[in-house]
Design goal:
Elements lengths: L1 H14 L1 E9 L10 E4 L5 E3 L5 E7 L4 E5 L6 E4 L5 E5 L10 E4 L2 E4 L7 E5 L11 H4 L8 E4 L8 E4 L17 E4 L2 E3 L30 E7 L5 H4 L7 E6 L5 E14 L10 H15 L5 H10 L3 E2 L2 E2 L7 H5 L3 E13 L3 E13 L6 E16 L2 E15 L10 H4 L32 H7 L3 E16 L5 E3 L2 E3 L8 E10 L1
Parallel strand pairs: 1-7, 13-16
Antiparallel strand pairs: 1-4, 2-3, 2-5, 5-6, 8-9, 10-15, 11-12, 13-14, 15-16, 17-20, 18-19, 20-21, 21-22, 22-23, 23-24, 24-27, 25-26
Length: 499
């Protein structure tokens, strides 16, 4: 009996808790409040108070404590036999030291007071989209990006200030100003190129399609109205500054990347097949006009239906959704060569992108080439130049409320109608053979109504000229050198051709 009592006392003593107290400070010795303190067995924890002090109860098996807080590096401390410890946390401010482009110069984020958003090129390079702007969706806070339609390579609507834009209420242009390596891109937000047969034949595109996402180093969106002091009234809707990749000093590098992908309609609409549709239409006509009425007979004639004992005989069904949609396919290839020495660096890249939409007769094909050169003349003068060529072709179906649009007409077409005449080649149209309903054969539009645009663009010029002219000024016995200036001149040429 004595042995059992002693053993129970020993187990209780081993499992009992111990108390650890301490203080958390930063690198300047200032107490840090709200720091999470967690034991190594994750069973006990607490937070520091306003004075950076904490007290936590832990088991004797606990070997360390983990200290973590937003803005500081997490730190694990072995406690050993200590009951009172002091921990110094190191601040993490690397994001504030990132260099961003602002107007004619570059600055650190910590030095900016204006609202802005930044996305790195690596975050969007491998997204299967025709234009880099589509890949920005959901990447930037406060920036609204919406597609006008699902056509491959179709234009999108970018709003930096949204409803705050002056032209927003009047239905005007709210697109931001685009600056690529200091050169203004005259995109004009070409939502409709006016190409095709009539108002329903226009397709949407954008000159931003010519920019290869793999060439982008970073994208900075400036939202501050102060940008107008640099770019004028064109910056009223915000400014999107695109910085492309540059060559780096060292051994020449060759990079190749590619991706392949598929797309399809996830959910098709559930519609009646041919027999069900004719049965429903027959019953409706019988209830209203009678089984032998002219309207009932005409309905059966137009749909090719026959009736026995009040039931429609099986009819060959046409799945118009299967004819209007297909499995889409995307492929992308990028090749770049970069390098240089202490005087000159270069980057040359080429890209090819092909997208076949999941709607029949819709596709997008693009080829691009870019050359970036930077040369350091001497310690006080450096020059950068850029040249970008692109050509892309977009083929789309009729837009809007046109019955020639498969996305609209595929579920409205009557299932007894067949797409071809008896020869299996000629498209069946209204008035040619048995046809019911006012929805025409959209396949005849996708085959005969050419709705295509081809755009070629050239963007180039002197990207920057850096001239360092240090005029030293003495201010309170401190010598401060002047910084370098930056300027850019360039041109944009584009040609849009439609058939």
């Amino acid at each position: 009996m004595t042995i059992m009592v002693s053993l129970a006392f020993l187990l209780h003593a081993t499992a009992q808790d111990r108390t650890i107290s301490g203080k958390i400070i930063d690198e300047k010795g200032v107490p840090v409040d709200g720091v999470s303190v967690l034991s190594s067995d994750s069973k006990n924890g607490t937070k520091t108070n306003n004075g950076g002090m904490f007290t936590v109860s832990i088991s004797k098996n606990t070997k360390s404590l983990l200290f973590s807080s937003v803005g500081f590096e997490a730190q694990r401390v072995n406690i050993g036999s200590q009951n009172n410890i002091e921990v110094t946390l190191k601040a993490t401010d690397t994001k504030l030291d990132e260099i961003v482009v602002v107007g004619y110069e570059t600055r650190r984020k910590r030095d900016l007071s204006a609202p802005m958003s930044t996305v790195k090129g690596s975050d969007i390079a491998n997204k299967p989209v025709g234009a880099f702007t589509n890949a920005l969706q959901g990447q930037m806070s406060g920036v609204q990006i919406n597609s006008f339609n699902g056509v491959p390579g179709g234009a999108i609507n970018v709003k930096v200030r949204g409803a705050a834009s002056i032209a927003a209420g009047a239905g005007g242009n709210v697109s931001p100003l685009y600056i690529i390596d200091g050169i203004q891109l005259v995109s004009q937000n070409t939502n409709g190129l006016g190409i095709g047969n009539g108002f329903e034949g226009t397709i949407s595109s954008s000159l931003l399609n010519g920019i290869n996402a793999d060439d982008i180093e970073s994208i900075d969106v400036l939202k501050d109205p102060a940008t107008a002091s640099i770019y004028g009234a064109q910056a009223a809707n915000g400014v999107v500054i695109i910085t492309t990749k540059k060559g780096k000093q060292g051994k020449s590098k060759i990079n190749f990347s590619t991706y392949l992908g598929f797309s399809k309609v996830i959910k098709r609409l559930d519609v009646l097949d041919a027999t069900q549709a004719v049965q429903l239409g027959y019953e409706a006509n019988v209830n209203r006009y009678g089984p032998t009425a002219a309207n009932t007979i005409n309905f059966l004639t137009a749909t090719g239906g026959t009736v026995k004992n009040g039931m429609v005989d099986p009819i060959i069904n046409t799945d118009w959704q299967n004819l209007g949609f297909r499995q889409g396919f995307v492929r992308n290839y990028d090749l770049s060569i970069s390098g240089g020495n202490e005087k000159t660096t270069f980057l040359m890249s080429a890209g090819y992108n092909k997208m076949e939409g999941h709607v029949v007769a819709s596709d997008f094909e693009k080829g691009s080439f870019r050359l970036n050169l930077d040369h350091k003349v001497d310690s006080k003068l450096s020059v950068g130049a850029t040249l970008s060529l692109s050509s892309y072709t977009q083929n789309g179906v009729l837009n809007g409320g046109s019955f020639g649009n498969p996305a609209r007409s595929s579920f409205l077409s009557f299932p007894t109608n067949t797409p071809y005449l008896a020869d299996g080649i000629t498209y069946r149209r209204q008035g040619a053979g048995t046809w019911f309903g006012g929805i025409d054969n959209f396949l005849s539009y996708t085959e005969n109504d050419i709705n295509l645009s081809n755009t070629k663009s050239l963007v180039g010029g002197i990207r920057q000229i850096n001239i360092i002219f240090c005029v030293r000024k003495k201010i309170i016995n401190t010598t401060k050198p002047c910084t370098s200036t930056l300027s850019a001149i360039g041109y944009t040429i584009s040609q849009i051709r439609g058939i």
